[in-house]
Predict the structure.
Amino acid sequence: MRQSNDIEDKGKESGSGAALLVPVERIERSILLIRGERVILDADLAELYGVETRRLNEQVRRNIERFPQDFMFQLSSEEFSNLKSHFATSRSGWGGRRKLPFAFTEHGAIMAASVLNTPRAVEMSVFVVRAFVWLRSMLATHKELAAKIAALERKLTTHDEQIIALIEAIKRLMAPPEPPKRKRIGFHAKEGQ
């Protein structure tokens, strides 16, 4: 029995008889937040789909009309530089990348699988979409939790004010009463006479 957080490929593409497992966590770690969008970079998507990054990008360029800006965009030099410094790694090979990477949204990842049209790409696209959906649901859960915490903080603030007022009232009640002013009995001499 296989675990629900693993993706299994029976070795159809690899040519080996051994099953390859790709943990869902691996896909989730590949999803980044760039320009306010949750995206997966071309190299990570190509690896998941079992093709070279070069082949994925060739197919994307041949079918560019299928990839509007909300499906895919190319990183700027600054974004790519920030990304490399964030992960503090460089791809092995002769000189690294020559072109800026593409970033695919959830819809772009599905479209990339359709233009690649390999059995592994089709199979893996389902899991990529599930990872995007799971992240979206986690974000929604976190937003709900943040809203509940904010509401609780507002309640506590009003409760704190009410508690402070209550404590002040109790202190006033506990303070000994001032003795009433009584007229002194007897003769009173005025001072200064």
